[in-house]
Specification:
Blueprint: E1 21-22, E2 29-30, H1 37-44, E3 52-55, E4 62-65, H2 75-88, E5 90-93, H3 100-108, E6 121-122, E7 125-133, E8 155-164, E9 172-176, H4 177-182, H5 186-192, E10 196-199, H6 202-205, H7 214-220, E11 224-227, E12 229-231, E13 238-240, E14 247-250, H8 255-266, E15 275-278, E16 285-289, E17 293-297, E18 306-314
Parallel strand pairs: 4-5
Antiparallel strand pairs: 1-2, 3-4, 5-16, 6-7, 7-18, 8-16, 8-18, 9-15, 9-17, 10-11, 10-14, 12-13
């Protein structure tokens, strides 16, 4: 038997700094995500007057109880929900059998609603995008993204209502883009601060666009540049604002170099430490801040049926 040489006299990680480190030859990081601690502890101390909130992720996500979304809520409740959204970044409500009309009415309390040009709506309410998946119509939303970043003024937030969901699968994951920015090393921050990324609707929707509509849609929705690192318009906190679904290139960079940088940035959404996961039940409602988080719809339920409706709240143009 070969003799084993033992050189360790303490835990290997004891020699490392108390922060994540880059894995050799890889953009991945490993180690304690100490950048989460302050926000995690801040959220744990929050208390609310008009509802209860149970924190479900380290820095994002709360399950809200004591609010009936089918009712006409007071301005005081709406104001407190708006603050809770700023803090938790995504809110979950259970057992909320809202009608399409009630869904739209609730969403309108938070701002003007968008109409999506590429996804069919509920026929009675053009403000509601309808996602109806089955064995014949499958889900392709299983990639981390902010919604509609190809707009000059992308969504500020979205409210998604589960109408029919599979018993297993079809979860939606959310990732904290403030935490993603905080996780960057100083070299990467220096590289991205002040830079823009070019966003383009055709990356996701171009293949389904009829030939005779392409010129008109391109004129209506030209490529748009947004900051890679944006300041949240309400909190002022910095967050990453790039995704693989809609970003065509990094403005002013060689395409190959820009693609490597984009990959490095988008990987920050992949870490479970930055995420919270929602398992849907019928009439669950999720309300997320489309600047502060990205989301990913797990496409693991085929051929089961999954029917959702979403109202999106118009936002402002991202800025530094």
């Amino acid at each position: 038997m070969t003799e084993t040489i033992v050189v360790a006299d303490k835990e290997p990680a004891a020699a490392l700094d108390v922060r994540p480190v880059r894995m050799p030859g890889s953009p991945l990081i490993s180690g304690p995500f100490t950048h989460l601690a302050a926000e995690r502890d801040r959220l744990a101390g929050l208390r609310w007057q008009n509802f209860d909130a149970v924190q479900v992720g380290s820095t994002l996500g709360a399950e809200i109880s004591g609010v009936d979304l089918t009712a006409d809520l007071s301005d005081e409740v709406i104001a407190e929900l708006r603050q809770a959204l700023r803090d938790y970044k995504v809110l979950f409500f259970r057992e909320q059998p809202v009608t399409s009309t009630q869904h739209v009415q609730f969403a309108r309390r938070f701002g003007e609603l968008e109409i999506h040009p590429f996804i069919p709506s509920n026929t009675d309410h053009p403000e509601l995008v309808r996602f109806q998946k089955s064995a014949q119509v499958t889900g392709f939303e299983n990639s981390w993204h902010h919604d509609v970043t190809w707009r000059k003024q992308p969504s500020a937030g979205a409210i998604l209502h589960a109408l029919e969901v599979p018993a297993l699968g079809g979860d939606t994951l959310f990732s904290d883009m403030h935490a993603a920015y905080d996780s960057l090393d100083e070299e990467t921050r220096t590289l991205v601060d002040g830079r823009d990324a070019v966003h383009d609707f055709s990356r996701a929707f171009g293949h389904s666009l009829p030939e005779d509509k392409r010129d008109a849609m391109r004129a209506a929705h030209p490529q748009v540049a947004h900051p890679i690192v944006a300041a949240h318009p309400e909190t002022g906190k910095r967050h990453l604002y790039v995704n693989r679904v809609f970003v065509e290139q990094i403005d002013g960079m060689d395409r190959e170099e820009g693609a490597e940088l984009l990959d490095r940035l988008c990987r920050q959404a992949d870490y479970p430490e930055h995420q919270v996961r929602l398992h849907w039940e019928p009439h669950t409602v999720a309300f997320w801040d489309n600047r502060a988080v990205q989301h990913y719809a797990s496409s693991d339920y085929w051929p089961a049926i999954r029917v959702m409706e979403r109202a999106s709240i118009a936002g402002t143009r991202p800025h530094r």
